[in-house]
Write a structure and sequence with these properties.
89 residues; alpha+beta; 4-stranded mixed beta sheet; 2 helices; globular; binds zinc ion
Length: 89
């Protein structure tokens, strides 16, 4: 689990690095994921807020859905190792 935090932290710092002079916007989704984007580009990363406790949403509005819950996209989602921990019957 702490491994995911490290992965997300690295992805965030890379994102901020490549958008150094741009204003970054973060939005919380009802699924608990945060979407980080900039006003000047269409680049965006998604991650669970629990994997980035140091990131606060810059927007009061909570999204109904995001790429994390709708498309299963996210820097903390490893497509190769689908560990489905929440098994439903
Ligand atoms: Zn979502």
């Amino acid at each position: 689990m702490s491994n995911q935090i490290a992965e997300v932290t690295e992805a965030i710092s890379e994102f901020l690095d490549s958008h150094r002079n741009q204003e970054v916007e973060t939005n919380l989704c009802s699924c608990g994921a945060i979407t980080m984007t900039t006003f000047e580009s269409s680049d965006a990363i998604q991650f669970k807020s629990e994997n980035a406790p140091f990131i606060k949403s810059t927007n009061d509005m909570i999204l109904d859905n995001c790429n994390h819950c709708a498309n299963n996209w996210g820097v903390d989602i490893d497509e190769e190792y689908e560990d489905e921990e929440d098994e439903e019957e």
